[in-house]
Predict the 3D structure of the following.
Amino acid sequence: MRGEAKPQPGLDASRLTPHASLAGLSKGTLDKLAKLNIASKFDLVLHLPLRYDDETHLYPIKDAPAAREVLIEATVVETDIKYRPRRQLVVHLEDGSGVVTLRFFSFYGSQVKHFEAGARIRAFGEIRHGFFGAEMVHPRYRVVEEGAPVAEALTPVYPTTAGMGQDTLRKLIVRALASEKLEDTLPDALLKQYKLPAFRDAVTFLHHPSPDVAQQDLQDRTHPAWRRMKFDELLAQQLSMRVHQQKRRGVGAPALRPKGTLVSRLLKDLPFQLTGAQQRAVAQIREDLSKPHPMQRLLQGDVGSGKTVVAAVAALQCVENKFQVALMAPTEILAEQHFRKFSGWLASLGIDVAWLSGSTKKVAKKQTLTDIASGKTPVVVGTHALFEDDVVFNNLGLAIIDEQHRFGVRQRLALRLKGTQGAQGAAGASDVSAQPHQLMMSATPIPRTLAMSYYADLDVSVIDELPPGRTPVTTKLVSDTRRDEVIARVRDACAAGSQAYWVCPLVEEIEAEDTAEDKKPKPARKPGRAGLEALQLKAAMETYETLSAAFPDLKVGLAHGRLKSEEKSAVMGAFQRNDVQLLVATTVIEVGVDVPNASLMVIENAERMGLSQLHQLRGRVGRGAAQSACILLYRTPLSLTARERLKIIFENTDGFEVARHDLRMRGPGELLGARQSGVPLLRFADLSADVDLLDAARDAAATLLTENPLAAKAHLDRWLSGRGEFLKV
Ligand code: ADP
Ligand code: MG
């Protein structure tokens, strides 16, 4: 059956078989389960324990080990309710080896009855030796008959939510394990190849492991049963990506064949030659665009690697075919810079570039929208405004999205759908588009593991070479107490004819992260985002005042988020023309700004910033031939993570290395901007620890789809049905 390219029925994700519902439970229980992301019986099966209690062994009181919870069995000698220092139930037990006191500070009247003298009690808790002898405070307990069997497996402790007790969850899960199908979705040969246990064995073991297991292996999730769960999860992700890739091949897009007319003129006019890496990316995109299916390509390249010109070449191939291009950037400054670049490059070719942003004035906007809708505008550059409903294209052929990780999935989808609205097709173009091609760009390099998992449905081009003539940026870590020296250094650099940035960043997110991790007390009142912006603005204004006073001969500019867009573009323009030598800025300049004459960057509060943000900012310098430097000002005391981040950014100039560390330190969610992008996260697998499993899952997905589509379908059914969020749009 190998290699037979049979159609694969049933692999359409929308036709997955739904899981058994949780019918029969009360609304309250369902709500609480929903909080735990449990919506079906199978979700209960996959709700794996956080840790385990060992109730398989009865300890004599005398021999019970310290500093861990143990199970004892003893008889009640006496029970009292005491009122000092506060109301409490005190139960004295003895088991022949010794005595112990149980203490309950909250209890019901009915509970007191459990502890009649002579009753046999099994209690699970930690024994502490205090002033009154051995004690257990609030143990879990039950009344037993003599000789009642002890648990044969470790007792699972599940992640839970307020109002949902462990016992309830345990019961629900035991029932689900008994009623759900746990047969294997994967063929034996595959399990053998990757040395994985059967699904049923793995999942029942994880819920109820035998007491002889090394608990550490469960904790570290290195036990074969854990590996099976992780493998299955990764495999489901890989399969779903592939199924979507296949689906995409079934969607139409205008075939934008290279005519060469405009592209070759642009390349001839450029003051530089494309690097080898740029040429490779251009060739890959050229190929994709000429196919009648939508391209979905991620153009990845470190800051300053020259992605914009590659985007311009792609745009022209689209315009050559009389289709429209939209280029979108996440900030107004960046979008405007693209607008200027594109206008400059395309003007001499006689191609108009339109501009659209949130702050475009009503009258101008109306005209722009009319021109976009009529097809008169071949290229439009802008911000999020391009997503809005009132923007209707005549025939959108290519959507280019810069800094794609800053946009959400929904926004990218919105733009893609724009290709289908107006689509009457351009004059002469017979193949009317269903969807435009998409080119996404990112300067946050995605480590291989992420590219293989979350981005597996994208094709990726990498620009792994910087344009010639760049000198690497030197990074310096300087304590805030040595500010004066830094100011002197800025003066020298500007006096020598170069330009400098002084960045006062918004510090909200990292601060929150460090606070949690260092267990610092939370400030009584945390300023909201607006409050933080105001603080940041105040800091930037003060720095601006200080530096303006310190450098009477220099022109100092100030750029921040509260400026009107004309003001912002005026100051950025002045910096670009070297009318301003020193630019004090908040994080508005974080992405994409390109001023090659700037060779010095000072970043305040660098200890509070994320790795990728620091790398992005540092990439603003070192764009010309001059030796550039990035000075990271920090304040002590430094948290452990802050110290580690600064060390990494100091030691690494390669964006891929920085991103790798970022992934390790923060996990994929943060790196992907999952909160905005809506990318589903893996629950079990850990992309930094489980690279081998990811490799295996990728290979297995390919094999399974060709050789055993029924198994693939069964696997997707098991892992994805009812989980639409797992599927990428
Ligand atoms: P990024 O990849 O960060 O978006 P840009 O597209 O802004 O980088 O390019 C950075 C700078 O390098 C720009 O000034 C651009 O004109 C210039 N550049 C791009 N490609 C080349 C090249 N092949 N040779 C020389 N300079 C180049
Ligand atoms: Mg860029």
